Fold these 4 entries.
Entry 1:
Amino acid sequence: MTLSAATLPTLPADVHTPVYERTHHAPGVVHLGLGAFHRAHQAMVFDQLLAGGDMRWGIHGVGMTRPDLVNQLRAQDGLYAVRVADGQGVQWQVPGALWRMNVAATERDAVVQAIAAPATRWVTLTVTEKGYTPALGQLLLDGLRLRQQANLPGITVASCDNLQGNGHKLLALVKAAASAQDGAVLLWLDTHCAFPCSMVDRIVPAATPEVLAAAQEALGMPDHCALSTEGFWEWVIEDRLADPQDAALLQSAGVRVTRDVHSYEEAKLRLLNGSHTAMALMGAITGRPFIASCIGVPHIRAFVHRLMGQEVAPHLSRSDWADYRDALIQRFGNPYLKHSVHQIATDNSQKIPQRWPPSVLGQIAQGASFELHALAAAVFVRYTLGVDEQGQAYPLNDPQAERLMALGAAQRTEPEACVRALLAREDLWGRALPQHATWIARVTHWHQQVLLHGVDAVVQQGLAQEA
Ligand code: CS2
């Protein structure tokens, strides 16, 4: 007997379970991207709203590509356990907000119908950086067009991916999918729908066998979809919602609804995600499997602390960055989160543009040092070799994997040409950095050092130089 609606009442009393009736209402939220993050973040916020008696927050969850995950969740009636664990304690909880499930790749029409369903009030998205494709714009537009034609109310469409100005990007994508016949839909979309920007934050690693075993232990039965996360979570959303009354509701569940999402977005992308990428690459090359193992190394910890304080913070509009940085270093060290460095290094080509170049450009504009970012970029170049310092090979999981590996392959024989070729890519670094001679020279310098002395020694060198 696995976890399911039938076995829910038999769970141990210390596991928090949904106290509301899960089957009597139609979902009010369609969520695209049913990965670990959504299930341990927003699905738990909506679970709180449901527990408060507002039955409009059930989720119709859409896996974009993976039928295996959706099938497992279906077999468990959308139920899964989340271990919330950090220095404050350990608690298991089964959120009950996931009511229906589909796979976009194979059940597209069901997804379009879900967006167009009368009960739907929100569409939320966590489809990852590489998910912002014309096909996504078309999917949303097809659902929204049906709503408009049926005279249904407009909805809030909230991108929750790690992209700056994510709401604007999503709206542009939907509009780009429109054809000459779509004038009425576009007008309706502008007047009745809202595409707020939002910043979401919670560290939710992909589940490991260890977490599944811990779930079995805690629940007294198997749960093939169990997850592990930290106590901390944050959701900041722009106060631009199709139904303005949702603002107070979300706030009651701990969401921050504000005019100014921008300052939260940029701080999170550059401090949290930017450090994540730097540590993930260092960990991958030095053979340290988890973020906690990286931040536990004094020189990596010092590197991340300085990267944030010296090269990122000066360009943030969020004034409480020092507290944020210190809290982040604590969170990275959470021993319960086995957050794989290779998971974070996935899709580097899509992640680096948001995470590093804005800080480098900020430093350049102020005539300040960007050595720590140059060192991190050198570590990225070294990473494209696909083999760690112990000679262990690892795969590059990236839509650009082949090209990155082709460019990186010759770095042992022609290091300078290699660095130049990788730094010339405007899709990674933007327009200005590929032209910046000092940036290129400094990355080339650190890259040579990394090849000669290894990542650990070079991180220590970098710290000594920037002290
Ligand atoms: C991570 C994020 O995988 C990654 O690229 O940096 O998933 C990170 O854990 C979340 O954004 C935290 O909110």
Entry 2:
Amino acid sequence: MLSVQEALDFLLHSARPVSDIEQLSTLDATGRVLAADQLSQLDVPPMDNTQMDGYAVRASDCVSGSAVLPVSQRIPAGHVGAPLQPGTVARIFTGALIPEGADAVVMQEQCALDEATGKVTVQHAPRSGEWVRKRGEDIRAGSTILTRGTLLRAQELGLAASVGLAALPVYRRLKVGVFFTGDELAMPGEPLKPGAIYNSNRFMLRGLLQQLGCEIVDLGNIPDSRDATRDALRKAADGNDLIITSGGVSVGEEDHVKPAVEAEGKLNMWQIAIKPGKPLAFGEVRRATTQTPAYFIGLPGNPVSSFVTFLIFVRPFIQALQGAQVKPPARYPMRADFTWPKPDRRNEFLRVRINDGGGLDLFPNQGSAVLTSTVWGDGIVDNPPGQAIQPGDTVHFIPFSDLLH
Ligand code: AMP
Ligand code: MG
């Protein structure tokens, strides 16, 4: 059996990232992966400006803490004032440029304007630089603001826009062909015949792939037959980078995925010391149209196994294929408020929830078909092989929110 880390290393080393790059409006680049480092051509902020509504002053004019000075000009944001005459102040509004000669801002709450004389009592002795955002304090011209392989979230797009980048180079979306094996599978909306179950993996897997920004080609439910599986593999390989299937990867008589992949390509890997989710198939399927094969990953049919193995293996593999920087999810040390007396020899991923006391509760049924655990839970505990857990023990918690974006 391979350890979880060995299997993950194997996958990541096998990943050849997509190389096609497209130029996208920064407005439309959410969730895409940046294809080149981005430099700033400018200082941000471009000039010294005020952080507060108030009065721009020369700090040296206000050392008494009760200086009375005339207001010589008014500078709203977006307007450029005149040089500040010595012995005067400028009315100024957040974001406006500090006029030449001024070196501090006193907030309006610390100033009293006498409407009759047009003079302000400055009731505070500012230090030089007070409430001034300095030119370049966020970004210096010439510096790298975003590196290749960065997933573009809201904050990256805001940063890119702040230096005036109207378009960004991103890798093309990954194309993923999916199908679901099992004679027992029915679709929601259809009546459930005896022996049938609804295909929950189809909905879960599509959701996971959409969250990762993949283009999905969904071939639907495929019966348990070698020929049907081979046929679906060929269709899924054509035009897609990756094929993901669910079910049929054990070694039972009705598990046709393994021999079908072996006939249409090759299969590299089989048993992993993970629970839930031991059977996971990784390989490749030949394409009729191009020299390079499509990657293949066969997920187990049990829904929780499928979900967990996707998060642990498929997600980082997809990120690598997308050209993204792959980093392991943070494992937060947290207190277990439960007992896990009979650990498995495999690396277990237990569905848990954060309780009001700041500890973790365990979902009572950890069965690999019990999807309720994934909805009830806030995340998973990564429990090393053979590790029993007592209340009060520190365990490694991975929130779902870190794994789903
Ligand atoms: P298999 O991996 O094909 O042996 O399936 C293992 C278990 O998962 C069986 O109980 C299947 O009925 C169930 N299963 C397989 N595919 C799906 C699916 N797409 N949705 C929900 N359950 C499934
Ligand atoms: Mg099956």
Entry 3:
Amino acid sequence: MAHVPRVLKAPDPSLPNSAKLPWVIHDGRRVRTGTAAQLRTSFGALLRDYRRRALTVPYPGGALKFGARTLVMGILNITPDSFSDGGLHLDPARAIKAGLAMEEADILDVGGESTRPGAESVSAEEELRRVEPVVRGLAARGKLVSIDTTKPAVARAAFEAGARMLNDVSALADPDLGREAARAKVPVILMHMKGTPRNMQERPDYGDVVAEIADFFRERLDRALSLGISRVRILLDPGIGFGKRPEHNLEILRRLEEFRSLGRPVVVGTSRKSFIGHVLGRPVEARRDGTSATVAAAVLRGADLVRVHDVREMADAARMADRMK
Ligand code: HH2
């Protein structure tokens, strides 16, 4: 049997003396301890790989730390028409309660416009009316809130209400959104989508789906940098279900590790999506176990952050998968 070395414990890279602190490594047979310099000759590739995973993404007032475990983003849709939780959280007090109940979530992603295939767009005023009190209420209770929007005016008001992260499914289609994020110094998720929610599922075709998404990431990373967003604040998401057939989504999950070469944390949102229904033949309310399998697979293949509805269950799935890496 092959002996695979792995890192058991690494020094916090943000500490000024981290180079002098010990790493704990299992070399496949026994535990070894030493500084990076001492272990470099035998385990250089392992340390490099681990460091690449150990990314720190600053947000106003704190930092997300990736590497030690997969982080979890809880979904809170304040919409009448989201595909799985539409209409559940339209009352702000109930939405805030639902957000607070997602105790295991590292981030709460608040959205006021559905992006399900064929969804109608809403005005910035309506979107803001839905999300603003919820963002404000959760932020006031110390939660790290991400605003899921493609509109600059919504993002700006959400940052003023206390949101400290931007989840943009259009990956800065509107440059003004990037400018708002740059000004607020918030982390930004750039998600891949082919087309728009209205037309994305009409005829999604790719040559090599993973290669095309990686090219898109490179282009949008450049755009983000040119708008003043710092590279350390960017996260990448291949956009499961956004202009993809079931086979494309499965291929993305099979080859997720390829996105790690871009050097940024990888976000994955599979929760209750239709490719799971396609494989299992289950309606949206019966896709939790299927989602759990996709979360575990994504974590094992290098996902840094998973975006989910069933926070407690998926946090468990991620934790187990983390331990089997
Ligand atoms: N998926 C949805 C919405 N936003 N953001 C990121 N970064 N990644 C995703 O995969 C993603 C996303 C769609 O899911 P949901 O929010 O549950 O539904 P709806 O768009 O209908 O509100």
Entry 4:
Amino acid sequence: MDLQNKEQLEQYLIQQFEWFHRHPELSYEEVETTAKIRELLTEAGIEILPYPLATGLVAVVRGTRTAPDGQERILALRCDIDALPIVEEAEIPYASESRGKMHACGHDLHITAGIGAAILLQAYRERLCGTVKFIFQPGEEDARGAMKILETDVMEDVERIWGFHADPTNAEGVVGIREGYVTAAVDRFLIRVKGVGCHGAHPDDGIDPIPVAAAIIQGLHTIVGRNVNAFHPALLSVTRVQAGTTWNVIPALAELEGTVRTMQREDRVLYERRVRETVEGIAAAYGAKAEIVWIDSAPATYNDGNMAQLCEKVAQSQGMRTVPEEMSLGGDDFSYYMEEETMGRQIPGCYLKIGTGVGHPIHHPAFCVKRSVILPAAELLAKVLEEDLKQ
Ligand code: NI
């Protein structure tokens, strides 16, 4: 492929994007996707590293120039590759061929832009002083895929990591960048309120868990307004309430399930403590018992200031418009790559949002990426990585 011929590269990337879009695979089932990525990278002469997991892969581009200070830098770019269990409704000629599965989060763009960036850097490797690892990560939608990668030694020598996401709230040519928190820490809770079942006409014979559950829901919703600093983004959602089997029996059990989203670490700790206190206190006041299962998932993503500034400069030099990245109380397991607890050391990272044309939100059955954003995204990532190797 003649890389000087932009049109040729663009056509090639669009063709691959359409293939990935037609062949979506769910978390940890990305077998064909992985084989295709491997095939395309191998064709482009890009080295694939040994990798123990069943899906996903890690490729590497090694620059041939020596850094002015003699220090060889190693950076990583994370591209997630899995799709969602959604029946596609987008009316496009390259719609999903697996009914019930769809690239509704734009990970097909992530794969293709990652491949494009790798191809470009491989071609320009005599200009690069350092190494870039391309992590094609499985299972992001499951929120644990990054942890699987961290079980391998892939990240051991990486100094900084880049990540990105398709953003249908922005037009093409627009990149969202922000220093600081951009995605939330994701926690999940399950509460079991245990009362004493009895006849619906004789509640005095038992302990009805339903009013206890109702009081708990009210109590939980006051945490954000009464305990959390009003300038800190945070929320709690109770998303499942379940109790009872019929109209004339008071059940013995009520279950509540939900999620807590926070940006600051202190709020994450505060929330867990306040949820426990609220649930146990209210249950005790009603004479019931409560059990709380707390499941913590990805931490918040914090964008490094120097990396965000570098990206902003590069995006503008590529003729793109930069806007403040929308903060989201959604999560991304990208944050695991930067955390001391999961990485063994803290490393800087930056997660940007690439405008894919304003349209349906991600995870919507008609979500659609404008194909004209693919090449500019690949070029932006390649340039950002090239420049960051000089830092
Ligand atoms: Ni996604």
